[in-house]
């Protein structure tokens, strides 16, 4: 299993730098991580290893796919967590997502405070929520999606995955 975590660490470092540089994570990186996780666990543990890897890949991919549909992450992030899941399995991946989302929230809050936009955005959010309940329509909510705060998610994923590793294996 140590080999899978080393491969995952190299994968995350490469994804971190490409995401910082271009706000994209290339398919060659994500697909190779998925395949290497599936192949490695299949060779080491046979069918049980394959299922371990498939469960992690599926969980990482599907949870991030839901986040993609609401506009919280990009498509590369979806495939990124599929690769993390294939290498590290279901529970590590789910916890990695949880910690990454927590880090993203803290980072987003710091960015808003730094830009002095926090109160303005909170007022818009409150107005959107009121609009949803009063007008029974998500239109006011959807109108503000183009104003979402954007930053490379890898800035939150890297400390999220490191935290997961330290909690589970530290």
UniProtKB/TrEMBL annotation:
The chain crosses the membrane at residues 25-43, 50-70, 90-113, 149-168. One of its GO terms (biological process) is signal peptide processing. One of its GO terms (molecular function) is aspartic-type endopeptidase activity. Keywords: Membrane, Transmembrane, Transmembrane helix. The keyword Translocase does not apply. InterPro entries: Prepilin_IV_endopep_pep, Prepilin_peptidase/N-MTase. It holds the Pfam family Peptidase_A24. One of its GO terms (cellular component) is plasma membrane. The keyword Transmembrane helix applies. Residues 6-112 form the Prepilin type IV endopeptidase peptidase domain. Belongs to the peptidase A24 family. This is Peptidase A24. It comes from Paenibacillus solani.
């Amino acid at each position: 299993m140590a080999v899978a975590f080393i491969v995952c660490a190299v994968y995350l470092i490469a994804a971190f730098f490409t995401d910082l540089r271009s706000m994209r994570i290339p398919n060659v990186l994500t697909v190779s991580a998925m395949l290497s996780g599936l192949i490695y666990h299949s060779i080491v543990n046979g069918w049980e290893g394959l299922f371990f890897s498939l469960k992690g890949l599926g969980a990482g991919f599907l949870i991030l796919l839901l986040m993609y549909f609401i506009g919280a992450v990009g498509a590369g992030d979806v495939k990124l967590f599929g690769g993390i899941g294939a290498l590290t399995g279901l529970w590590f991946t789910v916890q990695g997502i949880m910690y990454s989302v927590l880090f993203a929230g803290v980072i987003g809050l710091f960015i808003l405070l730094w830009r002095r936009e926090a109160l303005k955005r909170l007022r818009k959010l409150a107005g959107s929520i009121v609009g949803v309940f009063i007008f029974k329509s998500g239109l006011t909510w959807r109108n503000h999606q183009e104003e979402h705060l954007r930053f490379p998610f890898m800035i939150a994923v890297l400390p999220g995955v490191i935290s997961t590793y330290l909690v589970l294996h530290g």
